[in-house]
Design brief:
alpha/beta; two-stranded antiparallel sheet; 11 helices; binds S-adenosylmethionine; binds iron/sulfur cluster
């Protein structure tokens, strides 16, 4: 087997685990911007960083029960994550979302937050399943510089919770986490629910009640073809329009003025706190304003969630590449970002990887 002397660890590792692919070279003017632009004129300002592909849940719409994790050696180290974020920041990234897998399983989460908290980013957010938030975690995260947290919660029914997440974490544990995060000021706390026909679409109005009662932003997400079981079919999708109509049977809601890059269509209640939002990736794609890039736990850069085109930065990081070389790699990669997903066109190929791997 061909081996490669790994500079950092001094180990002989199979060449095959060092992903050495490089993106096509972007035109010279892309490099001159000194910012991350794609070839469609969109500036990339939002980085979603998956710090682990591990998870303690096995949500039916996301992860396989017998998932094969990325070997530990291929995961970026804390220093490598920090370096990549710094490089991205120098290219105009303003917002960071730390995700996974389940990011609270990442052993260096506090150290990472401490470092990124000092970088001067405009917004630092984290997405979690809310199963592991203990004691003073929320206050500590806040003091380290975290601004906001999103928690996933797909049902308000305890038995259904076990069935959807294929885990034993109680519903009350997750609700307590949501309340603790809100009370610690990591606001607005967003609560994500993936709505699936015949599974939890009878809870849409209850989710709106929950938003009011717990003073959170409840976001109902159209089920996307990113499940490990590859069972997604269009008939399982409940459209944002249908959800809104259901909610209007009980609540008076007012449309908010969303920012141009917002992925959700947001509403507030005529009376009371809390908000609701809809992420209509399937029925009303928002690709035109997409300003995101994703980096997976193994250093794979993915310009578009729904495109399997991706390039890995790990071997560059581990071969002593200069900051300029890393910057060029990011610029070239983001230039390749596709203009949008083809989900509503014939011949659409669903992505090979799941959301737990890519980072949601
Ligand atoms: N484990 C954390 C959690 O569940 O919040 C963070 C990672 S998870 C992959 C991020 C988000 O992706 C979650 O809110 C989850 O609901 C969403 N997600 C996963 N698979 C999805 C799918 N097939 N369709 C829509 N959203 C999905
Ligand atoms: Fe884990 Fe989050 Fe995927 Fe559920 S949605 S399996 S909690 S990564």
């Amino acid at each position: 087997m061909q081996v490669f002397e790994c500079i950092i660890y001094g180990l002989d590792v199979p060449l095959s685990i060092l992903n050495t692919n490089t993106p096509p070279v972007a035109p010279a003017d892309a490099l001159q911007h000194g910012k991350l632009f794609d070839s469609h004129g969109r500036q990339i300002r939002d980085l979603r960083l998956s710090v682990t592909d591990r998870c303690n849940f096995r949500c039916v719409y996301c992860m396989a029960p017998d998932v094969k994790y990325i070997p530990k050696m291929q995961l970026l180290t804390l220093d490598e994550y920090i370096r990549v974020i710094q490089i991205a920041l120098s290219l105009g990234i303003e917002k960071l979302r730390i995700t996974g897998g389940e990011p609270t399983l990442y052993p260096h989460l506090d150290e990472l937050l401490k470092e990124v908290g000092k970088m001067g980013l405009k917004d630092i957010a984290l997405t979690t399943n809310g199963s592991r938030i203990r004691g003073q975690w929320a206050q500590r995260w806040k003091s380290l510089g975290l601004n906001r947290v999103t928690v996933s919660l797909d049902t308000l029914n305890p038995q259904r919770k076990d069935a959807i997440t294929r885990s034993q974490t109680s519903l009350q544990t997750v609700i307590n986490s949501i309340d603790a995060l809100r009370d610690a000021g990591l606001t607005p706390v967003k609560v994500n629910a993936v709505i699936m026909r015949g599974v939890n679409d009878d809870e849409v109005v209850a989710f709106a009640d929950f938003a009011k009662e717990h003073e959170v932003d409840m976001r109902m997400i159209e089920f996307m073809p990113l499940d490990a079981g590859k069972r997604w079919e269009r008939r399982h999708v409940v459209s944002a329009h249908e959800m809104l109509e259901q909610i209007k049977t009980k609540h008076d809601v007012i449309r908010e003025n969303d920012s141009i890059t917002s992925t959700s269509m947001n509403y507030r209640f005529k009376e009371g706190n809390g908000r609701i939002g809809f992420i209509a990736s399937v029925t009303q794609a928002f690709c035109g304003a997409c300003d995101r890039m994703r980096i997976m736990a193994d250093g794979t850069l993915r310009p578009c969630l729904f495109s399997d085109e991706e390039w890995n930065i790990r071997s560059l990081l581990r071969s002593g590449a200069s900051d300029d070389a890393l910057r060029t790699f990011l610029i070239n990669t983001m230039w390749q970002k596709s203009d949008g997903h083809q989900m509503n066109q014939e011949g659409f190929q669903r992505p090979q990887k799941t959301m737990s791997r890519i980072g949601g």
